[in-house]
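Researcher: Next sequence.
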Amino acid sequence: MLSISSGIDGCLWAVQYTPLAAGENATTKDYPLLKWQTLENKWYRIDNITASAISAYNEISAAIVNKVG
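Model: Next structure:
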């Protein structure tokens, strides 16, 4: 994991590290966003959302930083 954040209700959000491809720059790359599913005890990828950092608020709200800003 590149970044993990816990919300006020105990939820977990994370940015998943993936290796850089040839020619990619780590400062301009975004990574998949994940959310911990407590009932199934596993991480789920959030479709069409990428980030480089995250700050969780609760189970349904999180703020991300991506290459756009």
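Model: The CA atoms of residues 44 and 60 lie 14 Å apart. The two ends are 20 Å apart (CA to CA).
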